[in-house]
């Protein structure tokens, strides 16, 4: 790739292999010591940051954050992960590793480099399996059932530190030598290191260059020279002498999540895996019975023609979702691929402009003609489109039920919340079943019911949109689709003899029951998109079956995740995750991960500009008479829905 590569693609590293060791052709330097790269990492970074001994003292529900200035081959990360496995305490806690890389290795080069270390092979295999496509921005990778989290930013290191929210307990100042890559070692970069350092943070670096030592000392680090590794005479280590390391967020605070759809169950699972007990409430008899209750749902986003914040969020959600669902393959996740059909002249024009203005790796999407699209989808189509090889479909309700099964998740079914009352810094919840709860942290993930629960006297900009899907028996189709096909409607492959198509977009209707008119709309638009697909034996709209759900959407059709915002400040202890619209399966995993980061006080997986985009504060206008939104006791009256 060249420096003028169109977004979101990013230039990969250019390597020269000498005696089996990778060198950067761009910087003329090796990625690790020719003597023994793994031992160098252990000596320079792990030992001089005292990581093995510090890992043992991480409290239950706590986290230890390592930040690194150049990901390179991932060797430092894997060595740290290995040490965490060996030395971390037995109780639940998380290792966070935050790293930036301007010129990431391709998957092939990464595999070749890491093959030099057979003892790391089990960890390297997992890293390679989750290694993100080479697109700009921030990627979150989760390992060891949530005990290890890697936040990997592809882009300039200064860009990363200015965009990300974290406080490091230890720093690996790695990367190529200061003389060869001076931008990484400038005073501005050192000031960002200080800004992102927790009290008592340590650092280590292979270099002993005087200006680096002076720049770090000017930021408050007590620096010292120490013998280097192998042929290097000296290296630097330092400590930020600003007091003891801060305590982690306590797991004793009662966390209550209202709503057990895809958003609520994903969030509950992320918190539980970090060591936080969670109570999950839902009015239905089991999780995933609202908008998440359809037989099938596609993992799908529509990427914008312009690579802006909205597109970046959608892309991040898509790639994280594909990684998140991978362990459920063959159970709830079916990665059949997905065809975004250029079904109309307008969509053909949009897709062409999209391709002209952007570059995406082929592992993410490729343009296909009608012949290729027909072969991939398993049915004849008249036009081409965009093929997403990592796309597919899920069974949402079964997934929600599986996510809720965790020792630290207490599930209360049939518990409809009727009242929220603030009292002494906590929230008192009354339920229709007569029970009550007290929450130190309250999260509302109740889909289209969420606005009725929000404890604010303010005009909000949420709206419920009815969506009806149609269940097509296999004989109703002349061809059985092998992949998800999306256009003006979507069509999923058959499962248990049924293919789901839809959904309607009924903004001004609140009928919770399937109607023949909505089935007629689905079938008519499906026939227009895929002419000749419906067989003569297809049931009439009055005879076909289906289901109705209500999506929660926002005025700007962007999701909402974060602390509830009132009168210019965040409302203490109350969070919202809703407004996912028809893309809950795509946005849910990433936004649940982000909200769990915030609640647990751990590094954020969203850069600041995307966190601002999903912040709940944009959803509320001033209260009546021109005043700001005000806190109030909230009575919940159920809406007319399933």
TrEMBL record:
<protein>
    <recommendedName>
        <fullName>tRNA 5-methylaminomethyl-2-thiouridine biosynthesis bifunctional protein MnmC</fullName>
        <ecNumber>2.1.1.61</ecNumber>
        <ecNumber>1.5.-.-</ecNumber>
    </recommendedName>
</protein>
<comment type="similarity">
    <text>In the N-terminal section; belongs to the methyltransferase superfamily. tRNA (mnm(5)s(2)U34)-methyltransferase family.</text>
</comment>
<dbReference type="GO" id="GO:0016645">
    <property type="term" value="F:oxidoreductase activity, acting on the CH-NH group of donors"/>
</dbReference>
<dbReference type="GO" id="GO:0005737">
    <property type="term" value="C:cytoplasm"/>
</dbReference>
<dbReference type="InterPro" id="IPR047785">
    <property type="entry name" value="tRNA_MNMC2"/>
</dbReference>
<keyword id="KW-0511">Multifunctional enzyme</keyword>
<dbReference type="InterPro" id="IPR006076">
    <property type="entry name" value="FAD-dep_OxRdtase"/>
</dbReference>
<dbReference type="InterPro" id="IPR017610">
    <property type="entry name" value="tRNA_S-uridine_synth_MnmC_C"/>
</dbReference>
<feature type="domain" description="MnmC-like methyltransferase">
    <location>
        <begin position="118"/>
        <end position="240"/>
    </location>
</feature>
<feature type="region of interest" description="FAD-dependent cmnm(5)s(2)U34 oxidoreductase">
    <location>
        <begin position="258"/>
        <end position="642"/>
    </location>
</feature>
<dbReference type="InterPro" id="IPR023032">
    <property type="entry name" value="tRNA_MAMT_biosynth_bifunc_MnmC"/>
</dbReference>
<dbReference type="GO" id="GO:0004808">
    <property type="term" value="F:tRNA (5-methylaminomethyl-2-thiouridylate)(34)-methyltransferase activity"/>
</dbReference>
<keyword id="KW-0819">tRNA processing</keyword>
<keyword id="KW-0285">Flavoprotein</keyword>
<dbReference type="Pfam" id="PF05430">
    <property type="entry name" value="Methyltransf_30"/>
</dbReference>
<dbReference type="InterPro" id="IPR008471">
    <property type="entry name" value="MnmC-like_methylTransf"/>
</dbReference>
<feature type="region of interest" description="tRNA (mnm(5)s(2)U34)-methyltransferase">
    <location>
        <begin position="1"/>
        <end position="241"/>
    </location>
</feature>
<dbReference type="InterPro" id="IPR036188">
    <property type="entry name" value="FAD/NAD-bd_sf"/>
</dbReference>
<dbReference type="GO" id="GO:0002097">
    <property type="term" value="P:tRNA wobble base modification"/>
</dbReference>
<dbReference type="GO" id="GO:0032259">
    <property type="term" value="P:methylation"/>
</dbReference>
<dbReference type="Pfam" id="PF01266">
    <property type="entry name" value="DAO"/>
</dbReference>
<keyword id="KW-0949">S-adenosyl-L-methionine</keyword>
<keyword id="KW-0489">Methyltransferase</keyword>
<keyword id="KW-0963">Cytoplasm</keyword>
<comment type="function">
    <text>Catalyzes the last two steps in the biosynthesis of 5-methylaminomethyl-2-thiouridine (mnm(5)s(2)U) at the wobble position (U34) in tRNA. Catalyzes the FAD-dependent demodification of cmnm(5)s(2)U34 to nm(5)s(2)U34, followed by the transfer of a methyl group from S-adenosyl-L-methionine to nm(5)s(2)U34, to form mnm(5)s(2)U34.</text>
</comment>
<dbReference type="InterPro" id="IPR029063">
    <property type="entry name" value="SAM-dependent_MTases_sf"/>
</dbReference>
<keyword id="KW-0274">FAD</keyword>
<keyword id="KW-0808">Transferase</keyword>
<keyword id="KW-0560">Oxidoreductase</keyword>
<feature type="domain" description="FAD dependent oxidoreductase">
    <location>
        <begin position="254"/>
        <end position="598"/>
    </location>
</feature>
<dbReference type="GO" id="GO:0050660">
    <property type="term" value="F:flavin adenine dinucleotide binding"/>
</dbReference>
<comment type="similarity">
    <text>In the C-terminal section; belongs to the DAO family.</text>
</comment>
């Amino acid at each position: 790739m060249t420096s003028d590569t169109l977004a979101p693609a990013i230039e990969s590293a250019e390597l020269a292999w000498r005696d089996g060791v990778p060198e950067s052709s761009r910087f003329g330097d090796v990625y690790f010591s020719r003597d023994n790269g793994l031992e160098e990492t252990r000596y320079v970074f792990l030992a001089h940051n005292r990581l093995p001994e510090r890992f043992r003292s991480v409290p239950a529900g706590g986290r230890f954050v390592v930040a690194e200035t150049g990901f390179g081959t991932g060797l430092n990360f894997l060595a740290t992960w290995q040490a965490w496995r060996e030395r971390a305490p037995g109780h639940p806690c998380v290792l966070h590793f935050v790293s930036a890389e301007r010129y990431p290795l391709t998957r092939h080069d990464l595999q070749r480099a890491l093959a030099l270390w057979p003892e790391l092979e089990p960890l390297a295999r997992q890293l390679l399996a989750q290694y993100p496509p080479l697109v700009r921005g921030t990627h979150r990778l989760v390992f060891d059932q949530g005990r290890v989290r890697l936040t990997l930013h592809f882009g300039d290191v200064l860009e990363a530190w200015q965009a990300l929210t974290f406080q490091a307990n230890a720093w690996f100042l790695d990367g190529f030598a200061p003389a060869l890559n001076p931008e990484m070692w400038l005073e501005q970069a050192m000031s960002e290191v200080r800004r992102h350092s927790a009290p008592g943070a340590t650092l280590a670096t292979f270099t002993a260059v005087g200006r680096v030592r002076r720049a770090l000392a000017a930021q408050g680090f007590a620096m010292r020279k120490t013998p280097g590794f192998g042929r290097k005479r000296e290296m630097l280590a330092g400590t930020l002498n600003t007091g003891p390391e801060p305590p982690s967020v306590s797991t004793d605070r009662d966390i209550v999540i209202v709503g057990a759809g895809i958003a609520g169950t994903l969030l509950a699972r992320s918190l539980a895996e970090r060591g936080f007990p969670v109570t999950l409430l839902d009015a239905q008899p089991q999780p995933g019975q609202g908008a998440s209750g359809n037989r099938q749902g596609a993992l799908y986003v529509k990427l914008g023609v312009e690579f802006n914040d909205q597109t970046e969020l959608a892309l991040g959600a898509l790639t994280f979702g594909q990684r998140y669902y991978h362990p459920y393959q063959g159970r709830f996740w079916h990665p059949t691929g997905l065809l975004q059909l250029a079904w109309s002249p307008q969509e053909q024009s949009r897709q062409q402009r999209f391709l002209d203005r952007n570059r995406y790796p082929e592992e993410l999407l490729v343009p296909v003609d009608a012949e290729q699209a027909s072969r991939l989808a398993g049915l004849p189509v008249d036009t081409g489109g965009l093929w997403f090889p990592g796309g597919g479909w899920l069974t949402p309700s079964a997934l929600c039920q599986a996510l809720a099964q965790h020792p630290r998740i207490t599930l209360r079914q049939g518990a409809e919340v009727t009242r929220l009352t603030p009292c002494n810094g906590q929230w008192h919840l009354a339920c229709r079943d007569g029970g009550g709860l007290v929450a130190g942290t309250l999260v509302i993930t109740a889909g289209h019911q969420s606005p009725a629960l929000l404890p604010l006297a303010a005009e909000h900009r949420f709206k419920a949109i009815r969506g009806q899907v149609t269940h097509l028996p296999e004989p109703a189709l002349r061809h059985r689709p092998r992949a998800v096909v999306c256009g003006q409607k979507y069509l999923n492959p058959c499962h248990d003899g049924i293919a789901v198509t839809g959904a309607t977009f009924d903004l001004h209707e609140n009928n919770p029951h399937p109607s023949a008119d909505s089935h007629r709309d689905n079938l008519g638009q499906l026939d227009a998109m895929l002419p000749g697909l419906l067989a003569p034996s297809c049931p009439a709209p009055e005879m076909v079956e289906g289901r109705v759900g209500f999506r929660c959407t926002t005025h700007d059709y962007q999701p909402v995740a974060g602390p509830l915002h009132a009168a210019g400040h965040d409302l203490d202890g109350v969070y919202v995750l809703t407004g996912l619209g028809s893309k809950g399966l795509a946005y849910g995993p990433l936004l649940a991960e982000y909200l769990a980061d915030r609640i647990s006080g751990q590094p954020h997986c969203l850069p600041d500009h995307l966190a601002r985009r999903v912040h709940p504060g944009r959803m509320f206008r001033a209260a009546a008479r021109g005043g700001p939104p005000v806190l109030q006791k909230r009575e919940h009256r159920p809406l007319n829905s399933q």
